[in-house]
Amino acid sequence: MKKNLLKILTLLLTLSLLFVLAACGSGNKDVLAGTWTEDDPDFGLTTWKFDGKGGCSLSTDFFDQEGTYEIAGDNVTIDMELWESPNVYEYTVGDGTLTLEGSEFAPSYNLTKK
Fold it and tell me: Is the pLDDT of residue 91 over 90?
């Protein structure tokens, strides 16, 4: 009787652990989440912060502003409070770097994870 009870408890604990591990690994990880910086000789220090929940901020030596972002494939659409309209960037992340490739109206950034 005690051996059967021990087997059942062991099985229940193992299943519980598997469910907890599965829950921790589920969902899409936001690869932009974190603080990223670029020190440009012309514009000074630029800092992007992505909160992992769709909120972001941009700080430079000249201004600070808040905004939102949305990832779709290899593109991120960023909408800042002082911008006339959202900008779409193609992004790449690797080895502690984030590249945001802009367009005619959106500057490109080569950022390092802080």
Answer: yes
